[in-house]
Amino acid sequence: MALPGAPAPAPAAAPAPPPPPTVLMAVRAGLAGPCLLPPLPAAAALRLQLSVQAADGGQRRFRLGLRHTEADGGTTVAEYDLKDVAYRVRSPTCHELTVLGSPAEPMVFTFEEEREAQKALDTTLASQASSLPAAAGGVSAEQDPEEALVSELAEKEDLALQLAQAIEYGDEEAAARCAVALARQQATLSILFKESNYPTEEISMKVVVEDATSSASITIRVRAHTTIATLKQQVFQDYGFHPLVQRWIIGQCLCVDERTVSSYGIRGDGDTAFLYLLSAKTAELTEQRYEEDQAQVMLRSTSSPARAAAAEGRKYNTLPNMSPKKGWGDEAGRKMDIAEISQHLDALQLGDLFGAQPKPAAASLPSPVPTGWSCPKCTFINKPTRPGCEMCSADRPEDYVVPGGYKPDETELWRMQQEQEGILQYQQALEAERLKNFQQLLELEEEVLVPNRELLECRICYQRVAPGEGVLLRECLHNFCRECLRQVINYSEEPAVACPFRDDSYACGSHLQEREIRALVSPEEYRRFLERSLALAERRSRDSFHCKTPDCRGWCIYEDSVNEFRCPVCRALNCLLCKAIHEGRNCRQYQDDLRLRAQNDAAARQTTDMLQTLVQLGEAMHCPTCRIVVQKKDGCDWIRCTVCHTEICWVTKGPRWGPRGPGDTSGGCRCNVNGQRCHPRCQNCH
User: Fold this and answer.
1) Positions marked catalytic
2) Which residues are within 8 A (CB) of 73 and not within 5 positions of it... i.e. 6 or more apart?
3) For the whole prediction, is pTM greater than 0.90?
4) Using CA atoms, how far apart are residues 674 and 318, in angstroms rounded to an integer?
5) What is the mean pLDDT of residues 582-598?
6) Residue 684 carries which DSSP code?
7) 672 to each of 503, 653, 664, how far by Cα in Å?
8) What sign for the dihedral angle of Cα 61, 67, 70, 74?
């Protein structure tokens, strides 16, 4: 009871309202097809919204709802707890929501943009993973770190188990949630098939065991789920071959430890595998490690009854049981010899048929060594006729000879036939290529000019020449532009036009062909070129005679028995003895008349005296061949006699060339022979 005058007690405080939910995602969406929702207007604008709100016990409650847009009032059409729905993807812009435990058809959402659809998917899956008990918990400030670590490991293991169960039952949504949660925690997993996924029958696998010197065929019992690592340990435990020296090849593949024999194609009895044994040195296997690993294997086999039973179950294998080799330290690089395996194969196989009853060693016969050549790289025994290794493609040793009485099997005959067909096809393709090249050469030969195929730079004018606008010379394959070659032809004083290619160390000695010259110049230029060639031929011919008619171009090459020349141009009769035209008079009459005219002609005498003075002053000289007076007015030191056309060196007053004509440096002035000039005053211009 309150005292008089005391203030009245305050009313009890009302409980605080829960905080409003936090919107994590809101995207525009539309409904496609019938669903469990009430009918909506055709043009209704909807929004898919994901929100989170705090719940009792520090938990979070995720809600996925479908609402009208704010323009339509923002009312809620439907809303579900995230843990009660399954969310999956149909297409990049179409998702599906199924209410777990509801028989109604799932709701199908369509999105206007792929970006919004991806945002809805990522946010929903991440929230589903966060809503799982393993992901919702955290480490409180008061929690012990060791307890937190144990709790975290337990949560990850639960997630891994849930992931395995979801995959096994085909629940894609649950598998996705668990995978996302594990990925966010960066958990390290090892995902393997259970043995129940494989056939349970044992397989008799044929194994060809080889090292660098010998080989043998054996049989090992395996199961489809046996991994290569397990197979290596099995061989090590029973026969003493360490896993480091074992190289398994199945189906022409070098096997890796993690895969099973069934993944390489071992599925039934008689399937073949190859086991290659390396040397301890190559495998970097020490004696200490071998002994340690061998001791561990022996301890496991003796301490585990299950292992002993398994070993007992494998006693019908056809490899002999082996103990660690003696004297390993003396020969560390020695190849693991398996000759003893070959010696006991027949006896062991027969013993298996009769209940593994031992047979005297003296009665056992050695296994025949397979015919063929051993690969120097991988030691694989190849068929005698095979040119390269079937496994590593290494070449067959050059000194190997196929045995004389060897008969190939059907597979080898087929391979040899394929090789012969391949060689024949190659030869046919090569011959077709040769014929094609020959046809191209014939087509080029028929062309007057060979055009350039690529962009080039003319070595004369240094201009770029586009493809097809230049000329490739046939004899030397040098390229030039057409205009430069035309100028070379027009200014050439030789009938054989030389290739104009020059550099610091090389000058091309090839010449243009006649058809190339005719195609590069105009008809008038070609006519002048022929006239120059004829004039040069006349000058260089020792027994040539030019018609004495003024301005006549006729000339001939005479023989000693011929004394007269009828010019085919002017039809005048020339006397080859007098070197003149004296028709109607004989040679004696003409010479007498010539002497009389010289005695009575004062002008002729005056001219003779002037020429002799020029010779004495060095301004004129006698031709070394015909002895007429020749004079150099101006220019270089190279001149030519106007009568006999002898080429003369002015500074030496002698012939330019030797007795064989132009180019003969055995005589003449020998200018520029061995880099020496012919005279101190030589201008080096001839």
Assistant:
1) 636
2) none
3) no
4) 89
5) 75
6) S
7) 19, 17, 12
8) negative
